[in-house]
Amino acid sequence: LATLSVVNNLPANALTAVQVLTVASRTMALRADGNVYAWGNYVSPVHGGYQNGGTPAYRPTLVQGLSPIKQVAIGSDYASWALGQDGTVWGWGFLNSYDAFAQGPSDNTLQFFTPVRLLTAANTPIDRVCQIEGTIYGVVMLRSDVVGGTCAANEPRSVWYTANIT
Known about the structure:
- This protein has no helices and eleven strands.
- The protein is mostly beta strands.
- It is globular.
């Protein structure tokens, strides 16, 4: 007869996550508490947001300025996306090379060094988003068509996306 003992030998400061993803030389991890950590190239070693050049963050760094998050996505090597628990979408990085953020000029100049909310053409925050996926051109969103929707399985949904890909 054998006895199995399970011992948790994680250090006290170990990063635990419910989602982790990587693209090229950048990684993001989403913790169960809704906080997002990032590391690698184009990640600020100070606040986890976007950094254009300079020293990358080699250790997981808290991305500051986000509401509690339920999903993360990476677009290109330069753009990051997060879906808030409230259904809003946040983005940061070099976001306008393909009009990816749908804000400002589409001339490769718009950079957000910390997360900002994604807005509709009417300049109101996009809400009721159930799922996101990053692309090289922006972010694709699955959004509830029900005002006040909760993303329940039986709710009708539509696909929204950013970017001028024509």
